[in-house]
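User: Show me an example of a complex going from sequences to structure tokens.

Assistant: Sure. Here are the input components:
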Amino acid sequence: MSAGPHYTLYHPRWYRHRVSVWWWLKKGSYALFVLRELTSVFVAFVAMVYLWQVRAIGQGPEAYGQFLARLKTPPFLLLNAITFVFVLFHAITWLNLTPAAMVVRLRGKRVPDWAILGANYAAWLLLSIAVAFVLLRG
Amino acid sequence: MVQRITPLLWLLFSAGGTVAAFLFPIHLFLTGLAFPLGWLETPRFEFLHRLVMHPVTRLYLFVLIALPLFHWAHRFRYTLYDGLQLKHLTELIAVLCYGAALLGTAAAAYLLWRIA
């Protein structure tokens, strides 16, 4: 073995034991963890739909009409319904983590978790109403 | 390289996760479900076009698209490491994930800049 406590990418062979690629199916909480991690794929999908919409609007009424027609097809409706569930899952798990990730102090006292959570959910509601308000005027 | 900019990547992951949490559910609900299914009236082209022409909307859309892409890149990178045990492909996966996010960001910037 070489000297010095440097970081090695792999453990020595004799300490390694194989873990199945499906390790996360063995326990409910592991499966939820992996599902939460997989929400990122659906988040990226929503970003791509928006990119697609921006492109369609830039190309004119005809392209925008095609975009709308495409979203009305069953595959896209199904995909969007599934994506919506995952995006909601992302939003809820993300907001629920904020008290742990962000410790807020007010006059030397730690703001309780429920207050941070409440503020986050209130902000979520207000932002959703604002977006709906702008888009539904048209 | 990836090691050195990890704090920045984590910041983008965090910012993108927050943007996606607050804004994606309502945007996807309207654009992906409520409008196509006819629950609510779909915005007309003229209205959306005028909206997107406004600089504030363009900036909003840029943030709405770019930051969540970096959120995806960072999270998906670790999902691949842990889920599929691809630790030996660290560099390749990082380049592909952040590269894809950069590409999407560039496309968003270009399209939003050029819109007329």
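The lines above are the inputs; the final block is the predicted structure for all two components together. Residues 1-79 of chain A form a domain with the 3 helical TM bundles of succinate and fumarate reductases fold (CATH 1.20.1300.10).
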